[in-house]
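User: Hi! I'm working on a homework problem where we have to compare a predicted structure to a textbook description. Could you give me the structure for the chain below?
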Amino acid sequence: MNQTQPEEELSLEGQRELASLIERHTRTDGKHQSAIPSLHLFRASCGQEPQFAIYEPALCMIAQGSKMVMLAKESYRYDSRSYLLASVHLPVKGQILEATSIRPYLGLQLNFQPDQIVDMLQMPRSGGEAGNHSSRGLAAGSVSSTLLDAVIRLIRLLDNPEDIEGLAPLMIREILYRVIQGEQGATIKSFVVSGSHAQRIAAVIDRINRDYRQRLQVHDLAKMVNMSVSSLHYYFKEVTAMSPLQYLKQVRLQEARRLLLSETTEAAEAAFQVGYESPSQFSREYARLFGQPPIRDVNQLRHRLSRS
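Assistant: Happy to help. Predicted structure tokens:
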């Protein structure tokens, strides 16, 4: 006679299956684009130095190992029993903490669009009330058995690619529904409720990420969302843990680093391409964020990548 297994045992089995699935589809270390466009898989066989990145709105989960993500001066550590939820684009620094060749770090990132969350709001029992408050754009939560099950079923589709087009959108919809029903439901909803403080800050963040090369003025950004400059500063810092100008600076510097690393671009040219008017100011701020001047930093990164 079949007996119902305890919740903890089911969860452990699910974590093992999730790890097995990700490991099968990531034979080498690094970030892997899956056959599902919004799903990325990660593998690392050793701990890493902190990596800078711009998080898109996404659900991040770990099947094996642990990771630390830093937003400004705040730190978020999560592992296989927790998830990280980014509701807006955020410049962060991440570091894999637990990973070995025998037991590699295995994780996933499922990107989503605000419209998908708006669509969820039409459903009954779609989580707590959002309210007109401003929430942190990065939040951690506990993985429930229902969320884990939905994620496993999505990744199983990678073994049956002919089913992806028809079933993946339905499974992603279920995953987002589970997130909205969970402890961070009100947080993620606050960023899509029209007129809320969080939604207006999200609009400013989108503008900065779209037009960071231009000369952006804080008072123009405040006017765009019908806020005073002081209100914009206050609520922007509530969401991102930094001021609008600090955020803009990080977006520009991370893009400049990407240009320098991927192209034969001079430091001064990269500075102009991302919106700086003064190469010397660019070099000072680059060294402040990344620890050393642009060319030295990029040469060190290239040397490190060539050895990996």
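For your comparison, note the following. Residues 1-10 have pLDDT under 50 and may be disordered. The CA atoms of residues 29 and 308 lie 9 Å apart. Good luck with the assignment!
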